[in-house]
Amino acid sequence: MRKGGGKPKGPFRTVEVRPTMNSEIKHPEVRVSIPPSTGVGKDEVLGVLPTASALKKAQEMKVDLILVSESGDIPVCKLVEYTKWRYMQEKKAKTLKKNSKSTEVKEIKMSYKIDVGDLKVRQKNCFKFLRAGNRVKLNVQFKGREQSHMDLGYDLLDRFMSAPELEEWGSMEGKPKKEGRGISVMVAVRQERIKREREEEKAKERKRKKEEKMRAETEGGGGGEEIKMVEEEEEEEIDVTKETGGEKDQVLNELF
């Protein structure tokens, strides 16, 4: 153990944590499966084998026997090259991280007497939040005797959502309702609009890669180095609508 305070000397190195595999596996028998070559789909199950037989199978296939789970009665192993298995794990972790981000609830506050300029600023912020996949809570607040003008609050929310970009990207979750000294309504992003934007981005990326490939072949006299096309996304994508767990409230305090 290093004594004293301060920073450790020398450069930092990232130590790779490798799974138990091949001759390191000491269990007498293991449950074996072979992942699909594409990384997508179900494994080919070989069943329970003596570890010695599983190692022999790995040698025949010129792959590794990797221990992936010891939680059950019989440990689970996969027959796959270690470099390929590591790539698959990194890709899976990246996908889970991307899809596990909880949807945030942004709140936009305003007075029923808000001027046109400030209203446009809030509409712009709402559009930005929706495009990022967040839900937005619109809150029209009243002070004291202003509560006698609640009807103007409902009109304001209708005008707020009449902006073309908000009509395209958002939709009210139910009707505005009175909440304390104000009127509020939740606005959710239209899933079909997000899906369409993702498809448009993928199409642009494919077009860009195709143009790069054609340009490289032209410059190289038809024998240019091939540039790989954009890798297709995995079939399983978690819909934003399923990411409603663990919501966090982030309030935009812009009350005038």
Automatic annotation (TrEMBL):
One Pfam family assigned to this protein is IF3_C
Q: Where is this region: Disordered?
A: 1-22, 196-256
**Domain (Translation initiation factor 3 N-terminal): residue spans on this chain:** 21-94
Translation initiation factor 3 C-terminal domain: from which residue to which, for each copy? 103-188
| Keyword Zinc-finger (UniProt) | no
Q: Which UniProt keywords apply?
A: Initiation factor, Protein biosynthesis
Basic and acidic residues: which segments have biased composition?
239-256
Q: State the Gene3D superfamilies in the record.
A: Translation initiation factor 3 (IF-3), C-terminal domain, Translation initiation factor 3 (IF-3), N-terminal domain
GO MF annotations in UniProt: ribosome binding; translation initiation factor activity
One GO biological process term is: ribosome disassembly
Keyword check for Manganese, yes or no: no
Show the GO cellular component annotation of the record: cytoplasm
From which domain of life does this come? Eukaryota
Question: What SUPFAM superfamilies would the database entry show?
Answer: Translation initiation factor IF3, C-terminal domain, Translation initiation factor IF3, N-terminal domain
Q: Its family?
A: Belongs to the IF-3 family.
- Mind telling me which PANTHER family this protein's record contains? TRANSLATION INITIATION FACTOR IF-3 (PTHR10938), TRANSLATION INITIATION FACTOR IF-3, MITOCHONDRIAL (PTHR10938:SF0)
Q: Write down what this protein is called.
A: Translation initiation factor IF-3
Please name the source species. Answer: Triparma columacea
